[in-house]
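Q: Got a minute? One more chain.
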Amino acid sequence: MDTQREPELAGQNVVLIGGSAGIGLETARRAQAEGADVVITGRNPDRLRQAALELGSPRTAAFDVNDAGALEQFFRDLPGPIDHVLVTGPGPVYGPLLEMDSAQVRDALGGHVVLALAVARLAAGKMRPGGTLLFMGGTGGRRIGHGLGIVSAATAALPPFVAALALELAPVRANLIAAGFVDTPLSASLLGDQLEERRKQLRATLPIGRVVEPADVAALAVHIMTNTALTGATYDIDGGQQFVGA
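A: Always. Here it is, folded:
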C-alpha cells in the first residue's frame, strides 16, 4: 500500500512579508516542504540573501513594508495568482503610556492594522478564491499590567479587524495568529541579556514544558493555509502562557 502523502501546497504561491528571519523564514521553509513556490521579503538585503540561500534561492524582494510606495510596487510587479500571504508585521512597543507622544501612540495602535489593510488592498485582486491573508498578533497583551502600556490596546484591535476583513474579502480568507513568547531573533533583540532567564522561566511554568519555537508557529500557519474552512478567526499559540500568567 502506498502511504506517501501528497504535498498540501503543491503548485501554490505563498508570499512571506517579513520572511528573512524568525516566524516568516520558518513558514517559508515549511511551505516549501509542502510543495509551495515562495516569495520572501525583508528590509535587510544581507539577511534576505542569507535566508534565500538557506531556502534554495526562492524569489526575494528587499524593501521596507512601511514604505507605501515600495509595498505597492512589490505587489504590482508580483505575478499572479497568489494563494497565501503571511504578514509578520512590526514587533510590540512597550513602555509607560504617559511617556509616549502622540505619534508613538498612533504608530503603536495603528501599525499592524494599517499594514494589514494595505496588504489586503494590494493583494486581493491577485489572490485565488480560498486563499488566505494571514496576520500576526499576540496573546501577551490581553492582560493589563505595568510595563505593557499600549500593547494591550493594540492587541485588542486585531481580532475584530481581521474578522471584518474576512467578510469583505470573501471568498479570499483572512485569519490571525496570536502568539505568546516565541524564541525568535526579535525576542532576542527585545530582551537582550535577559533572554536566557526568560527561557528558563517559561520552561518551568508553561504547561507544555518548553518554549514555543518559530517552527511551531509555522506549522499553524501552513495548517490555516491548507484548511479552507478557516476564516475570520484568531488562533492562539503560546504554550498556555496566558493561562499561567507567565
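A: The longest helix spans residues 102-123.
Q: Perfect, thanks.
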